[in-house]
Amino acid sequence: MIRRIISLSLLALTPLSAQGEPAVLYGTHCAVCHGDDRLGSLGPALIPESLRRLKGDKLEAVIAKGRISTQMPGFSAQITAKDIAELAAYLHTPLPEIPVWDAARIADTLEVNPDYVAPDAPQHDADPLNLFVVVETGDHHISVLDGDTFDVLARLPTPLAVHGGPKFTPDGRFTFVMSRDGWVQKIDLWSMQEVARLRAGVNSRNIAMSKDGKYLAVANYLPHSLTILSTADLSVQRIFDVVGKEGESSRVSAVYQAPQRDSFILALKDIPEIWEIATDPNADPVYEGFVHSREKGMVEAIASSEGLFARRRIEVSEPLDDFFFTPDYRFLIGAARDSDRGVVVNLNVGRETHELPLSGLPHLGSGISWEYQGRRVMATPHLREAKLSVIDIQNWEILTQIDTDGPGFFLRSHENSPYLWADVFFGPNRDVMHVIDKNTLKIVKTLRPVPGKTLAHVEFDRDGQYALVSLWENDGAIIIYDAQTLEEVKRLPMSKPSGKYNVFNKITFSDGTSH
Ligand code: DHE
């Protein structure tokens, strides 16, 4: 209520002509939940960076009709269609300036759960490493499943619009969940309780855990930064303002953990650089420039940083994002801007080495790798073409392309499974899931458990015996299949389940999962 009074009084002080009609409507109807500054409060931030996915008249429809399973009401009775259209256009307009989101402001957002008590041992009988965390985006919860019995052990509310995979501490005890509005939530899987949450960015992409489990990096679109938090208490350890060699700032598309390198790797949206940030306190110095030393009469390399959080720039010919990493983390494949090419970068020498013709927007971040006829291959879906590309990652040649019933989003397999599972996320066949033999590269079965309902994203239990699939609908479910016979064994009702993550597979960097 206090917030509402402030927002209305601010409006009263500003002449109407200066605010424009939509700003007044915003103050009257939206500010109470979405914040006077449009940066979110009870509801999500209403800025172009957060609304990018509501294209065309979708945002108008949400304003008019509301959103099911949320507290967003419809406003068609209070606001005319014309005004709704103007309000939607206003919300798609960038903020006049990038908000300051520094360490002090981030620290201010910390919310600690007063009921949390750290237990000495797991407070459940399940195998703590065979738990699944299921993200339910329909009503903003996570469910924790026992990976042996498939009982739901707990269901906890999350921030709105959780995106990307939760990340786990190396012992599997704590998991961290991130929302597109930059909230990071810490959950103790021993007690199944939220520990705390804090807003590390205004508009964020994903999170990554350091190898030792001490740090969590948050990739932000807004501001243009990487926030590094302590996993112990979510305190801010470092904020990198992301500015390229030429002085231009950039959004961070994603941050990844590179365990063998003991570092974070950053994909940068707007500048032709990849950043590597050391998570090893003893990291070697990083040399980034040369000066002429008068005393020594020679050109000397200048170390810009060393040790923990030493930052290395890898210059590439154009911005790359959506990375697939080889299992040894020597190479990555990134998608070029024109989305018709993959570019291979050797991270050891810091150079582009190969180019792959990959039309139809390859979704490299979903890529997985396995041994095929004595060589290591990877497969990637394409967001705009009905195929999977299989690439030999020794010689960087496209081995084959597998035709599918439509463009897909996610792939999954497991070391103990002969199959890889590929969804068809787009088009009329988005209700099917292909199961593909990893040795013959042929589709052996196409599952369609509920005709007309979207089926997507698979995760295996720790032994690779069962595959869990999301029926990606508000009245959806997790469908559990026997991973050998491909028969359904159980169905658990869920609210628009998106990703699901097995603790063991994630902390061991299973071959079958994208990292
Ligand atoms: Fe994602 C992972 C980027 C749209 C669901 N998505 C990721 C990751 C990135 C990414 C960088 C890796 C994060 C990680 O796990 O650490 N996603 C993008 C995009 O750029 C894109 C195409 C556009 C955007 O809106 O940002 C996009 N993603 C979507 C969706 O529309 C999906 C289907 C629904 C949603 O929740 O927004 C979606 N993305 C997911 C999921 C993962 C993910 C479920 C984790 C996959 C996993 O198995 O690890």
UniProtKB/TrEMBL annotation:
Its EC number is 1.7.2.1. The keyword rRNA-binding does not apply. GO terms for molecular function: nitrite reductase (NO-forming) activity. It comes from the Bacteria. Keywords: Heme, Iron, Metal-binding, Oxidoreductase, Signal. The keyword Metal-binding applies. CDD domains: 8prop_heme-binding_NirN (cd20777). Residues 1-20 form the signal peptide. Residues 15-95 form the Cytochrome c domain. It is an enzyme of class 1 (oxidoreductase). This is Nitrite reductase. It comes from Roseobacter fucihabitans.
